[in-house]
Every structure is written in C-alpha cells, then in structure tokens.
Amino acid sequence: MRIESPRYTERFGSVRINDVQQVLELDSGRAKELLPHENIAVQKIDEDILKSFEEKMAIVIPIKDEKLKLFEGVVSGVPHDCLIIVVSNSQKKGIDRFRMERDTLNQYCHFTRREAMIFHQKDPALAQSLLESGYTDLLGEDELIGDGKAEGMVAAMLMAMLAKKEYVGFVDADNYFPGAVWEYVRCFASGFSMAKSSYAMVRILWRYKPKISVGMYFRKWGRVSEITNRCMNSLISSKTGFETEIIKTGNAGEHAMSLKLAEILPYASSYAVEPQELVSIFEGFGGVLPMAHPNAAKDGVEIFQIETRNPHLHEEKGGQHLEGMLLPGLGAIYHSPLCEVETKQMILGELRQQGIIKPRERPPKPHVSAPLRKMNLKKFSKAMEEYMESYSALREER
Ligand code: GDP
Ligand code: CO
C-alpha cells in the first residue's frame, strides 16, 4: 500500500493530530529496497508489514437486523489474519435473526478456515460477568447490556482484550462494498505502522459518499460531518489560539485504536460515541485539564485521518434524519469542560438553525461510561472463561 506521509501535524498538549493522508496505491507491489527519498512524501507499506499489524488486530462488526447478504459481504472483506468479532443486537424472538447471522458466520469460517467470534449483546452471561467484575456502566435497568451500537462496541472491545489483541477496529455491517471494508482495514494497519506512540487512533475519511438520487452523485462530506467537524475545530482553536480545520473525521464510524488507548478512554452512548472519543482525548491529553494517564501523556496520543479510494455506500435506513445523528455529537462537544462560550454559541446556533432545538433548549449531555481499565479484567476474564468457546465461530470443529 502506498499512502501520503503525514504532511502536517497539529499539536494540542500531548495530542498529535495528523492532517488527512490519501491512499495513493491500494497495492504497492512486491517488497523491494526503497530508492533514496522514496519514503519522504509518500510511505510505502509492504504487505508483510500490513499483515503483521492485521494479525494483532480485532475487527468489530456491530450488527442489528441487517440484510444477511450485506453482512456476509462485509465479513468477506476483512483480511484473513484479523480476528472478526461480531456483536449483534438483532432480534431473537420470532424469526431468530441472531441465529441466522451465527450460522452464516460459522459456515463462512468453516470454508475459509478463519477465526471469528459472535455473541449477542443481551447475553445474560456477559452481563453477569460484567456485574461480577464490578463494571456496571453498560448495564440497563434489566441488568443486561443496554441497546445501541456504542454499548455493543464497548462489549466487543472487552472481547478483543480477552483475545489479547493489540488493536481494535470498527466496521459497520451494512456496507455495500466488501472492497471498501478491505481498504479500511489496510488503512488501519498502515496508520498503526506509522505511529510513533503506542496510544494511537486511525479514523477513516471517505473520499466520496454517494447519494442515489437521479443517477448517482458523489458527495464528499455529509452535512452532519461538516457541522460536527466545524464545532470540534472551534473547540481546539479556542484552546490553542490558532484557527484550525484539522479535524475532518469527527463522526467517523469506521475507525480503529490501539487497545492501550481504547482501555483508557471513556465512551459515550449512541451517536455521540465517535465524536466523544476525540473530545475525551482532548480533555485527557490536551494539557488544559490534568493528564488522564501518565504514560499516554508522555508517549503522546496520535490521531491519523486516512482518506480511502473506495466510496462509502451503506444501507440508509429511514431513521437517519439529521437530528438523530447531529444532536448527540454536538452534545458531546457542548458539555465538555473544554467548551467555551464561543463554541457553545456556535453549537446552539447550528442546532437552532436546523430546527433541532428551541431557543431556550440545550443539547442533551451524553451518558459516558468509565474507562475499561477501571474494571477488574482478571475477574471478568475468569467469569467469561466458560462462555468464550460458545462465542467462537469454529467451535463445533475443535
Ligand atoms: P449509520 O450507518 O451510522 O447511520 O448507522 P446504522 O444504523 O447503519 O448503524 C451502524 C452499524 O451499527 C450497523 O452495522 C448496524 O447494524 C449496527 N447497529 C445499530 N444498532 C445497534 C445495536 O444496538 N447494537 C449493535 N451491536 N449494533 C447496532
Ligand atoms: Co448505516
């Protein structure tokens, strides 16, 4: 793979935010000695380097009642050496969609001889193990893990930790192009191969997000991303004193982290989860508030934003109105202790202009769960021991 070198890096305390890097070649050929200066403006990342990162990576696929064909396509796009972790919140009553997903995955893994795990977000054993290890932030009143993609993501991160992976990446189950999924994972691996700190995050920027209207229109940014990014950049500018447009992936659903970083961040629920990750990094390591973790502060937290070649096309469901997606993300920024009056005004202005809040209303404060390192992982691991086998897609054959 050949990818632009980070050409510009914005610093915010211990956080290094790299400007967008484009993919130049999806495949850069056989490993050869580099010519002098070949790796200055452009990084060539050899296949075996990519593979060495993929081996250490879990790819989480959150799914809720998606078409099985789409799900299977997404699975087929994940490079073989990654551990696939499917976290499902699909229906089990009536038509057992979870079972259909599990069967599809099991069959797929049987023929491709690859490793995968699948579990239901509402699995009582999982909730019980969380309870036993003293981590109740994900649990609802029924003492099961709550609904939502964010809750599923956090549960899957725990599985990645139990599987002793070093990196975790997220890919939605409703992506139409397996080739795009394949590229995301290669971008994750490339980003980590460039990272100097072991506390790193890679966020994907889509080159185009097509809309199907009359013919197909290749849109660059969605409206929600545009507004979220603008407010996030305003928050950074107000602290550094320099206007910036560095954040271009505030809402990136497709993203990855080193587990060392993943376990020290708090997570918001719902659509606030991705913007909140950045907000939490700025709060914890921006140098304005006390540093959240001494080692990460010393090493620095590195953020990569990589622009893919494949366009992003996913299933658009009815409920994806502006309000549902914009409001939680802006709420995460608005309620940050870093957010000053100017950015707050900007957020209120945007939300009012879109007719999402009324004049005296404020965006809701997201529910944020404690970092995973606060839990007793040993206890959790022990409690989960007897169930792990039943999550494995190759289990009947062992
Ligand atoms: P959007 O693509 O960001 O507009 O949101 P989607 O509704 O497509 O959801 C993103 C991904 O999360 C898809 O793969 C969904 O199937 C999945 N998802 C949505 N809700 C849940 C949930 O409650 N739990 C889990 N595990 N996955 C979910
Ligand atoms: Co979608």
Topology:
Layout (H helix, E strand, L loop, with lengths): L1 E3 L4 E4 L2 E4 L2 E5 L16 E3 L2 H8 L2 E7 L4 H10 L5 E6 L8 H16 L3 E5 L3 H9 L16 H14 L4 E4 L7 H17 L4 E7 L3 E5 L1 E5 L3 H18 L14 E4 H4 L4 E2 L4 H13 L8 H6 L1 E7 L14 H13 L6 H13 L14 E2 L7 H15 L7
Parallel strand pairs: 3-15, 4-15, 6-7, 6-9, 7-8, 10-15
Antiparallel strand pairs: 1-4, 1-5, 2-3, 9-13, 10-13, 11-12, 14-16
Helix pairs in contact: 1-6, 2-3, 2-6, 4-13, 7-11, 7-12, 9-11, 11-12
This protein binds guanosine-5'-diphosphate and cobalt (II) ion.
Poorly predicted runs? none
Number of domains: 1
**Oligomer description:** single chain
Question: Got a strand count?
Answer: 16
What would the keywords be for this entry?
two-stranded antiparallel sheet, globular, 16 strands, 398 residues, binds cobalt (II) ion, binds guanosine-5'-diphosphate, alpha/beta, 18% strand
